[in-house]
Amino acid sequence: xxxxxxxxxxxxxxxxxxxxxxxxxxxxxxxxxxxxxxxxxxxxxxxxxxxxxxxxxxxxxxxxxxxxxxxxxxxxxxxxxxxxxxxxxxxxxxxxxxxxxxxxxxxxxxxxxxxxxxxxxxxxxxxxxxxxxxxxxxxxxxxxxxxxxxxxxxxxxxxxxxxxxxxxxxxxxxxxxxxxxxxxxxxxxxxxxxxxxxxxxxxxxxxxxxxxxxxxxxxxxxxxxxxxxxxxxxxxxxxxxxxxxxxxxxxxxxxxxxxxxxxxxxxxxxxxxxxxxxxxxxxx
Amino acid sequence: xxxxxxxxxxxxxxxxxxxxxxxxxxxxxxxxxxxxxxxxxxxxxxxxxxxxxxxxxxxxxxxxxxxxxxxxxxxxxxxxxxxxxxxxxxxxxxxxxxxxxxxxxxxxxxxxxxxxxxxxxxxxxxxxxxxxxxxxxxxxxxxxxxxxxxxxxxxxxxxxxxxxxxxxxxxxxxxxxxxxxxxxxxxxxxxxxxxxxxxxxxxxxxxxxxxxxxxxxxxxxxxxxxxxxxxxxxxxxxxxxxxxxxxxxxxxxxxxxxxxxxxxxxxxx
Lengths: 284, 269
Known about the structure:
The structure holds 2 protein chains of 2 kinds. Chain A has helices spanning about 1-5, 10-30, 50-55, 60-90, 95-105, 110-120, 130-135, 150-175, 180-185, 190-205, 205-220, 225-230, 240-250, 255-280. By secondary structure, chain A is mostly helical. Chain A has a single domain (about 35-280), classed as Orthogonal Bundle (MetI-like fold). Chain A is globular, with a radius of gyration of 23 Å. The model of chain A has no long low-confidence stretch (mean pLDDT about 90). In chain B, helix 4 runs antiparallel to helix 5 (about 95-105) and helix 4 (about 60-90) packs antiparallel against helix 10 (about 185-200). By secondary structure, chain B is mostly helical. Chain B has a single domain (about 65-270), classed as MetI-like (MetI-like fold, Orthogonal Bundle). The model of chain B has no long low-confidence stretch (mean pLDDT about 90). Chains A and B meet through helix 1, helix 2, helix 5, helix 6 and helix 8 of A and helix 1, helix 4, helix 5, helix 6 and helix 7 of B.
């Protein structure tokens, strides 16, 4: 009786979600089989031709995919290691550690475009902070101007942006490890590295799985950071999948952009699945 | 070991904080002063950058747009999502799981997979170039993650609480308002902060929907700066400061809730 009233509670959310989320997602699939340009009243149904072109014959798309994978790898490795490292250093509760957690988390609340501008200045080839600090050490680079390495430099910006967020997830995992385990290990004469290797690392496996999964999704969605650093549309050295799809769309190839976004979604699903398996193996 | 740990933490603190201080300091410098001494305090602080950005770029208007959008889209998302989460947590058998599953599935769909049909749809409904359109899309796009977080919390509340209230004659609506909502307060606070950060910082949908400069939100206006000022860093930095100060101030006072909210929302990426 009362439970019937409960059935009405999700209705407003379901109506909006159905109309503006589910329906467009399904229409996206439908668009992806057409050559629609977005404004003409008529269009052709081209079957799977768009997909064939995305997968086999589109250099811009495969370039974006390659960049995205390089970016993903840099960020997943760099950010996961840094986040775990910071979490281990800050695991002990003290006033200083609480304060530093707050500081390391701070970049996460900024907008991507703001973070992009901060790093644009760090990487400025003439006056940038990186150049000012590293040139005296004999390290020089054109940073974002370096066609080969630009995407890795954007990766560092992304790590600075979100490492604090992932550190918090690791801290939650580390706090669940019983202190007795460490005490017992110390009694047995285990050093810091051994304690980390045999207690912390295996027991934070669930946190690693989360961090890697979240970081992966973020790396596919780093759209705003790229546009802020590279401009819209970004040049090909900094083009990733999400910016590629947006550019195709902005060039009035709606049907083809829809096909790209279907492939994009499948790529995310595939990489997430592979990583899930890899994380499980790494923590054995 | 202790000093090693301190040195490492100190080093990373500098990496985080120095660029931010350079940005804040730079917003009070001329380009020449910034290039001559990026790390120094502004010796002759100038407010010209703020004047340019706030007056010529009409950034106050933009700031107002951002506030208006967030002020509507966050409470609406929160109300719709908590109603849904309450039902998902309380509906018996597979009903609850179906409601939850429908929304949770949305977490796997990236915005890029929907944005093209959404663009067409909002265009036809006359909701492009309108703040209402931005509010609506914010609500829709963040419903899945909000329902996900809130259902997770509401499921941990003991059913007996509701049943006791209902024995006393309270209906589903009363139990929701008098029991579920007050008890879910920490989760509602965390979710609302996550939503504020998401909606405040979103760039994709404003970029997609807004051509009219008078309807821009902060991230979109900042992106336009990039095209207009290129390497006039003091102006770019001033934009960053204006866009970030509200969030950073709120973070200073509500840090715990920010951390809880953004961590809970990490599932959205």
